[in-house]
Design goal:
There is one protein chain. With 125 residues, this protein is mainly beta. It has one domain (15-107): Sandwich (Immunoglobulin-like). The chain is built from one helix and nine strands, in the order E-E-E-E-E-E-E-H-E-E. Strands 2, 3, 6, 8 and 9 form a five-stranded antiparallel β-sheet that branches. A hairpin with a 4-residue loop joins strand 2 and strand 3. It is globular.
């Protein structure tokens, strides 16, 4: 049985995720993402957010606060996390649209540019 074949009578206590993401900075200057989060969006538009964690040595985890990316470089991250019971119920009942990776690029007040949101769809049903 794969993760999409869930018995609807099962009770859920939450959902866990693990996925890898590659980010590339194609600019000549360093950049980064703040406010990094994973979002599950239900069919009714309600969102459930989670702050992802990255594994450290000796089975420890650390919250991802900022992702810094050097010029013309990739950043590869393996993200782990938990979603609440309501998100797990939406997955079980197949009432969700997608799971997204979201972060905010830095503000550039000198150029009159506010922060810009980066979104990447991780999975759709």
């Amino acid at each position: 049985m794969d993760w999409t074949e869930v018995n609807k009578e099962m009770s859920v206590q939450g959902a866990q995720y693990i996925f890898a993401i590659d980010l590339f900075n194609g600019k000549e200057v360093p950049t980064g993402l703040r406010g990094v989060r994973v979002r599950l969006i239900r069919d009714d538009g309600e969102c459930f957010e989670s702050r992802p964690l990255v594994p450290l040595q000796r089975n420890a985890m650390q919250a991802v606060e900022v992702i810094n990316i050097l010029p013309r470089q990739f950043a590869h991250l393996e993200l782990h996390g938990n979603l609440p019971v309501e998100a797990a119920e939406a997955i079980r009942d197949k009432k969700w649209q997608k799971v997204e990776f979201v972060g905010e690029f830095p503000k550039r007040p000198f150029f009159g540019i506010g922060s810009k949101t980066y979104r990447e769809t991780i999975i759709k049903p």
